[in-house]
Design goal:
The complex is a heterodimer of chains A (305) and B (291). Chain A is mainly α and 305 residues long. Chain A is built from twelve helices and two strands. The longest helix of chain A is centred in the first third of the chain and has 40 residues, at 10-49. Classes of the chains: A mainly alpha (305), B mainly alpha (291). At the A-B interface, helix 2, helix 4, helix 5, helix 6 and helix 9 of A face helix 1, helix 3, helix 4, helix 5 and helix 6 of B.
Chain lengths: 305, 291
């Protein structure tokens, strides 16, 4: 009798078990994240600590030669420049188009926009990256070859493939950003006699500017991290991209082509991890930038209220 | 030029550019479907890539990997999302640390996840190029995304629901499992389906974890330990997306293009199906909230 009274009830035991379960699930996710960051970091710096490659040389030289172990000539400069160039070109092409589509969906014709335009761009979001790579390979490259000569493989082909890939990313985030502007602001501006274009420029774009910037940052991050589609069309030659039609290699495409041929704990493998570390740092920077922009816009909003 | 004229011109340009882009996207998708339809026939779907040019085994591998990945990642993601939204104090340092970490993990380029999986699972744990390596690597890729989307749909349930449950003397666990979870279910389902679409088309994570070869499978052999059995998790398993990448980088000539086009149609149809299902769940969600 006594024993039964002091035992906790079934409900309480279940409650404790549930708490234990959810916290252990969270622990698994966090441990995984930390393990991944730790691994990339410790492996990534092994090139400089174990193989004694000069860190500054690694950042500024453009040759990728891991075969000669006595005097390795290793540098990621060309890869970084190519990554930056393809990403930048892609974003420059896509951002204006994505903004126009987002404005159309939110302001010009929400009905057609919501029923046709938005689902169509979302469908683009779901198409796997290898499909974009394949289309680049079979349609874009022959076209570029006929139009400009050369092989067609290169920076421009990669940028155009990336441009199409990040169009849905930027568009859907931009739609969210524009929808975040309260409807009453629009109505108010119309009642003051503004034209549609004035409402778009002076009210919608102005107020949602920070969130639109975040949309672009996420587009940049996606383009920067994309591997296979780029690898299929860029030509995979480590050199500084002097022209739009120079075959080149990005950080991600180099990882893709070399990953399978390396043996663990050799210079060739450590050097690839250093590239992964560079990618990780860039991805952290993009995250941080997005956070900063959002925080600034939020603090500004709370002041104006 | 007065502002009405400017308005006319600019809105005209907006409409025109949108129309052009929409036509372009529609043409792009129709081209993919139309050019691949001719490659699809019964033989293509039912023969092995080693004998004919079929994709039977790749199709099975894709579905099997998707199933395993979701089976592993769903309980963990659900638990983590519940902990983040319903247990941890949202203003605490730990909460923002955990959320930041998950955000970083979810924005990591997938090729890095593949590299990590290759090193840890394939080499360190000696799992080789296998289904289990692939499923675990895909789980690494999938977990943060799924956790975030489940957390969002759990946050959509008002705090008052939890408070009224507790006020009635129902335990927290009981309130969550019997009231909050059913309420958030359509949102959770739509999150699962969207993540399934991403996992289904993922290739960068898989090329060096699940491998790039598809040994011919014997579908009458249901012994999970036999290498020819489709259920065996220690055999290499090339998926549809990886297949497209492989045949094009190995350049098999005309066959590569035909095989890829057919495979792309299957991939797009599956993604389209997932999109429709997700849309269905999110409309049920909206109806539920509007109730």
């Amino acid at each position: 009798m006594n024993k039964q009274l002091f035992n906790s009830s079934k409900e309480i035991r279940q409650d404790k078990l549930g708490r234990l379960l959810v916290y252990s699930a969270l622990t698994v996710v966090l441990v995984l994240a930390l393990a991944m960051l730790y691994f990339i970091f410790s492996k990534g710096i092994a090139t400089f600590t174990q193989n004694h490659i000069n860190f500054w040389d690694f950042l500024t030289r453009s040759n990728w030669n891991t075969d000669n172990l006595q005097k390795p000539d290793l540098g990621a400069w060309a890869l970084m420049v190519t990554s930056a160039e393809t990403t930048l070109l892609a974003v420059l092409v896509t951002t204006p188009l994505a903004l126009v589509i987002a404005i159309y969906i939110v302001v010009m014709s929400p009905k057609i926009g919501g029923r046709i335009v938005q689902p169509l761009t979302e469908l683009l979001l779901g198409i796997p990256s290898v499909v974009y790579g394949f289309v680049g390979l079979t349609l874009l490259i022959p076209f570029l070859r006929n139009w400009a000569g050369g092989t067609g493989f290169g920076v421009l082909a990669a940028s155009l493939v990336l441009a199409l890939m990040i169009l849905p990313t930027i568009t859907s985030l931009a739609v969210e950003a524009l929808n975040g502007v309260p409807q009453s602001y629009q109505t108010f501006a119309y009642s003051l006699g503004c034209t549609k274009w004035q409402v778009i420029v002076h009210v919608l774009l102005k107020i949602s500017a920070p969130n639109l910037l975040v949309a672009v940052i996420f587009g940049v991050a996606r383009a920067f991290g994309e591997a296979l589609a780029v690898q299929m069309v860029i030509g995979n030659t480590v050199q500084l991209p002097l022209g739009l039609f120079t075959p080149a290699a990005t950080l991600t495409s180099k990882l893709t082509t070399d990953m399978g041929n390396t043996i663990d704990d050799t210079l060739a493998s450590n050097a690839l991890w250093s590239l992964a570390l560079l990618l990780l740092v860039m991805s952290l920077i993009f995250n941080l930038l997005a956070k900063l922009v959002l925080r600034r816009s939020q603090s500004r909003e709370s002041i104006s209220r | 030029m007065n502002r009405y004229r400017v308005n006319q011109i600019m809105t005209g340009i907006l409409n025109g550019v949108t129309l052009l882009v929409v036509l372009f996207i529609a043409a792009f998708i129709l081209y993919l479907l139309a050019s691949g339809m001719t490659a699809i026939n019964w033989r293509f779907l039912t023969t092995s890539s080693e004998v004919g040019l079929g994709i039977r085994d790749q199709l099975f591998n894709s579905l099997y990997l998707l199933l395993l990945t979701q089976l592993i990642s769903l309980p963990i993601a659900l638990g983590a999302a519940m902990a983040l939204t319903l247990y941890v104090d949202k203003r605490s340092k730990f909460a923002s640390f955990a959320q930041g970490l998950i955000q970083i993990l979810s924005s990591l380029p997938s090729i890095i996840v593949g590299l990590f999986g290759f090193l840890i699972l394939v080499l360190k744990f000696n799992l080789g190029f296998s289904i289990i390596s692939g499923a675990l690597a895909l789980t690494f890729f999938n977990l943060p995304i799924l956790t975030q989307s489940i957390a969002v749909s759990l946050q959509g349930v008002p705090d008052e629901v939890m408070q009224s449950g507790l006020a009635l003397g129902i335990s927290k666990w009981h309130t969550i499992t019997k009231i909050i979870l059913p309420e958030a279910m359509p949102g959770i389902w739509s999150g699962i389906v969207i993540s399934a679409g991403r996992v289904f088309g993922e290739a960068a994570t898989l090329i060096y974890t699940a491998g790039q070869s598809a040994p011919t499978l014997d579908y009458t052999n249901w012994n999970p330990l036999n290498p020819a059995s489709p259920l065996n998790i220690f055999r290499p398993a090339e998926t549809l997306a990886v297949h497209i990448w492989k045949v094009n980088t190995e350049s098999l000539g005309q066959d590569a293009a035909t095989v890829s086009r057919g495979t792309i149609v299957i991939l797009i149809l599956v993604v389209l199906l997932f999109n429709l299902v997700a849309r269905y769940f999110s409309t049920t969600m909206r109806k539920k909230v509007g109730r």
